[in-house]
Each structure stands twice: as C-alpha cells, then as structure tokens.
Design brief:
Elements (H helix, E strand, L loop, with lengths): L1 E4 L5 E4 L21 E3 L5 E6 L3 E6 L4 E5 L7 E4 L4 E6 L5 E6 L3 E6 L2 E5 L7 H4 L19 E2 L22 E5 L2 E5 L1 H7 L1 H9 L5 E3 L5 H11 L9 H13 L3 H13 L6 H10 L3 H46 L1
Length: about 325
C-alpha cells in the first residue's frame, strides 16, 4: 500500500486495505490506485508503511497506528510520550519511535503496544526482507526502551556482529587473515560495497590484501559503528587516505574533522608531507593554514622586538641631541 502526506499535513492512502492499513473501510471494488483521505485527530508530520500496517507521526507528538489486524478500520493512538520521529523495518510490521528525550520505543502489529524489554540480537528481526541469513528461532523479539547518545559509534547493534561469524555471508580477504563480513551492514554503510553488491551479489569472497590490514579493519569498524577507542593521529591519517581512495565520503568527513583536532607542532610536518604526496588538497590547505597560525606569534614577537629596537634607537638619538645642545 501507499501513503502520502500533503504540504498541509493531510494523509492520503491507497492500495490493498484488507488488513486495515489504509485507515478507512476498504473493499476491492474501491480499487487500488485511488488516493483517499484518512481522518486523523491532527496534522501528519511523517508516515511509515509496514507490510500490512501504517504508522503516522502527528504534529502534537502522538503516533497514529492502524492495520495488521484484519480490521476494516481501527486507528490506535500512542500518546504515552512526546514522539519526534518514527521508523519501520522493511517488509515487516515492526515499528520504532523516538521521543523528545532521545528514548526509543518499539512495537509491532497486530498489537500496537509499546514494549520495554530487549535482547541485543533482536535487530535480526529488523533485517527480514534484506539479503541476509535470517533465523527467527534465535530471537524471541523482546523490546527495550533505549537512550540514544549523540555519538553513534560503538553503540549500534551492528557492532555486535563485528568480526563475528554468526550470520556472516561474505568473507573479506585481508593480509593478516579472513574477516567474516555481513552484506547488510556493508550495503547500508559503505558507498563502495553498496555499488559492488548492487552490480553483483553472487560472490562470496572479496580480496582486500592490497590494503594495510590494520587500517582496513578500522574502516570496517566504522561501517559496523564499532569505533569505541580513540584513534591516534597516525591511524586517523591512514584511515583518511584509505577513505579518500575508496570514495567513502562519510568516513572522509569524519576522519578529516578528527584529524584537524589532532594537528599540532609535533605532527603537522608529517601530515603535510603525506597530504602533498597523496595530493589531498583539502587536508593540505588546512595544514598550511595551521602553519600560518603557528607562525603568527613568532612574527608578532619579531615585529615587537623591531619596534622596541627602533624606540631605543630614537631615545638614544634624542639623548645625544640633548647632550650636544647642552655642550
């Protein structure tokens, strides 16, 4: 089914409404391609379509939910918190909503009840419909209220699968050994792998032995959102160079900012040298600007000393003139 929101916040739906997912009484005689307005107690900010259900975020912070229960028309309002965003797992009736206090709640059709218990491997349910091995028996789907920090790295469910063979469906060949990877993670977080997997999904191995294994593992940690340790400036520089070569723009931006924070008089010469040799124009420009800022105190001190010497010379000349006149 399809749901659209107008610029005035009105919701319209069409398609199969046999499970109540359209928000109004529907039968096959009404057709599947005619948009009809859904009556809601407020204006719609965002809408998400599940497999046979629909969730709408309203302007007052409530969520309207309907469908998934074979009812012709049954709209349930979720008002336990003030919500600011909603999301839906593809090809499922699994929904989540974020509150103004950065809490995240999960629920699923046909029981639109917010749940407060979770297991770390519950993310597997959200992967249903994507090209990844799925075994429902591994998760009983218990959900938990969870606080979202500002920094996403090291706190994602993806991090649970970093370097793990569980559900791995792709092997990366590195110089220091094989790395068990997961297509869904790489597809969602890597521009390079997204293109590669889109063009062909038949391969089981990828040769990455041309790259430094330590640096490439740091890149993979970024994809898995598992960068829990602070990287040294050397590691950041190597990761930045690798990301530029692989056209991973998000990683480039991340490492670029972190690298600038670590620029100092001890490492700027080496970073400038690498920037020149690798033709990294943006990094080179920042290094040159930083060098100028570092030299400014020296230049100011030199100017101050010159002015001081000139003042002393003028004073000596004045004293000499007075002495001559006195004589």
């Amino acid at each position: 089914h399809l749901a659209v929101v107008t610029n005035k916040g009105a919701l319209y739906t069409c398609g199969d409404g046999s499970s109540g997912q359209l928000g109004y009484d529907w039968n096959e005689d009404m057709g599947y391609t005619t948009l009809r307005k859904v009556s809601l107690p407020g204006t719609t900010v965002k809408v998400c379509c599940g497999l046979s259900s629909t969730a709408c975020l309203l302007s007052d912070g409530s969520v309207a939910f309907f469908g998934g229960n074979n009812a012709k028309q049954s709209i349930t309002m979720l008002k336990q918190c003030t919500f600011i965003d909603i999301a839906c797992a593809t090809l499922t009736d699994l929904f989540s909503a974020k509150t103004a206090s950065s809490g995240v709640y999960f629920w699923r059709s046909p029981t639109p009840k917010l749940h407060l218990k979770v297991d770390a491997c519950d993310c597997i349910e959200a992967l249903l419909g994507w090209p990844v091995t799925y075994d429902r028996a591994l998760s009983e789907i218990l959900f938990l209220k969870q606080t979202l920090p500002c920094n996403k790295h090291g706190l994602s469910h993806y991090a649970e699968f970093y370097g793990q063979k569980q559900f791995s469906d792709l092997t990366l060949k590195l110089k220091d050994g094989d790395f068990p990877a997961h297509r869904i993670v790489l597809f969602n977080n890597s521009a390079y792998y997204k293109k590669l997997l889109t063009e062909s999904a038949d391969f089981q191995f990828t040769d990455m032995t041309s790259h430094d294994p330590h640096t490439y593992r740091n890149l993979l940690k970024y994809f898995y959102q598992a960068l829990v340790k602070e990287l040294s400036w050397q590691d950041l520089l190597n990761l930045y160079v690798l990301a530029v070569n692989c056209n991973e723009n998000e990683v480039v931006e991340y490492t670029f900012r972190r690298l600038l924070d670590k620029l100092d008089k001890e490492n700027i010469d080496e970073i400038t040298r690498v920037a020149k040799s690798k033709e990294l124009s943006a990094l080179l420009a920042e290094c040159n600007a930083q060098l100028e800022r570092m030299l400014q105190p020296t230049n100011n001190e030199t100017s101050s000393n010159q002015e001081s010497d000139a003042t002393k010379t003028n004073q000596n000349d004045t004293e000499s003139t007075l002495h001559i006149r006195s004589s």
